[in-house]
Design a protein that fits this description.
single chain; 4-stranded mixed beta sheet; 2 domains; alpha+beta; 45% helix; Helix Hairpins; Ubiquitin-like (UB roll)
């Protein structure tokens, strides 16, 4: 189970409601077993994360069960605050009264997942860096000095766009800067998780 990821269902100890679905590798499961909180493995950031490390809405572990086929995990926990990033108690909401079907909603842009999806693509390009048509692959292959230079260039363009007060240009330049910064993190000796943890610690102060 070192490289394998298993789906982990989180159930509220008191209400028995299903709170969320995440993924665990062996290390995440071991940390969850050790307690006191639930840990997952982020498929996009390729790193471990403790549920609640940013929001403070931890999941306190009560019981862990593995299904009979040994391919999924059920964790019973006590939530400290809302589990879902939307502020809802559970990530699962009833769609009975919604006009659009769930399949249409899957195609909508979820703002909270955009960074995760972008990181996933960048990480995949680093692994498969021989895609000739991919700008990300070319950028990663150019080396950290070139990527750093691009970040400086894009930061300058953001500043110029903001001074000119051109809304469309500001959006474009900020998008370019964020993308190049994520590529630079991928090329550097740190992980995305290191940055999120640092931001989290500053937020708590």
């Amino acid at each position: 189970m070192n490289k394998q990821l298993l789906p982990a269902i989180i159930q509220d100890e008191n209400t028995k409601n299903i709170l969320m679905l995440g993924y665990m590798n062996e290390e995440a499961l071991n940390k969850t077993i050790a307690g006191p909180n639930v840990w997952f493995f982020s498929r996009s950031r390729k790193t471990l994360w403790e549920k609640g490390e940013t929001s403070g809405n931890y999941l306190r572990v009560k019981k862990i069960n593995i299904d009979c086929d040994m391919d999924s995990i059920l964790v019973t926990a006590i939530p400290e605050g809302p589990t879902c990033h939307t502020g809802n108690i559970s990530c699962f909401e009833s769609t009975a009264n919604k006009k659009d079907s769930i399949f249409n909603s899957l195609n909508e842009n979820n703002q909270s997942e955009i960074i995760d999806k972008l990181i996933e693509i960048i990480s995949e390009r680093k692994t498969n860096n021989n895609i000739k048509t991919s700008y990300t692959s070319k950028l990663l292959n150019s080396g950290i000095k070139r990527i750093s230079q691009k970040v400086v260039e894009e930061a300058g363009e953001v500043a110029i766009a903001c001074v000119s007060n051109d809304k469309e240009e500001i959006i474009n330049e900020f998008s370019d800067l964020i993308y190049h910064m994520l590529v630079l993190i991928e090329a550097s000796p740190i992980t995305y998780g290191d940055v999120w943890a640092q931001l989290n610690s500053r937020m708590k102060k």
